[in-house]
Amino acid sequence: GSGEGAGAAAGAPAKIDKRVTDERLYSIAKEMQQERPVINASGNVDTDNLRWFAQEMLEAARTATHWETSWVQLCVPEEHRNAVAHELVRVLFDLLVRAPEARSEPITDALAYLSKGSRVKLSVLERAIKEHFAGTLRRSPSAWSVLSGLLLSWFPRPKGHGWGWSRIGWSWLEWWKLCNRVLDLLPPAVAFDTLRIALIQMQDREGGTPLRQQELWTEERLAKLRTKLGRLHLRSQSDKPVPATAAVEQETLQAKLPGLDI
């Protein structure tokens, strides 16, 4: 847009004015505390106030700290935290449907920041995906890109690596289990693309290094990955249950995975 300034037009990254951002985040927190409580007088989640918060934050927040701090400043009583977190995820899915192109990236970031910062428990986020994401996909077929981004952001990486998740006890196996639980909530063709794009982005984040040359992707893990992708592909081709022994030829599978070396 014309308001982006010469810096943005010249290809320079848009500058974040820290003072303006901090003031805006402060005013959002103040309004939520004084005028828009997320728990109403009856003890229920106030969805309208939560939606206002989510919309304002999608405009103002730029970092994990912004989202984590603003979540804490909602001052949600402990007994309501999971209910508020679940409703916030549902609201974010709803906002995604209304403007998928503009909101896909900031909503992916928000969910990644809140889950990795333990503000929204993974179990709560999974339940929200299970209960609400099918409806999101019906209304916005490209919404699965948010889940691709989450699978990427949850991938175990060392601290300071620049992407992924460094957490005590978080391993490739834990990530793979979570991956499977999320993918199994999606139609097979959508699950296939969700995983495929996450893996392509993983190669991009590692400077284009093929997956098979990356440290965490041992041959045993690549075999599990090929099996999963193969079964998703077979299930996407047929309405009938896929036999447990069914497999896809490696060449056939690789042809469905341009840009990926597994």
Approximate strand percentage: under 5%
Radius of gyration: 20 Å
How far is it from the N-terminal to the C-terminal residue, by CA?
40 Å
Proportion of residues in helical segments: 55-70%
Number of helices: 12
User: Main sheet?
Assistant: none
Features:
12 helices, 262 residues
Describe the structure.
The chain has 262 residues and is an all-alpha fold. It contains twelve helices and no strands. The chain has helices spanning 5-9, 18-34, 47-60, 64-72, 81-98, 100-116, 122-139, 144-153, 172-183, 188-205, 219-237, 250-255. The termini are far apart.
Please give a quick description of this structure:
The protein has 262 residues and is an all-alpha fold.
SSE inventory with pairings:
Blueprint: H1 5-9, H2 18-34, H3 47-60, H4 64-72, H5 81-98, H6 100-116, H7 122-139, H8 144-153, H9 172-183, H10 188-205, H11 219-237, H12 250-255
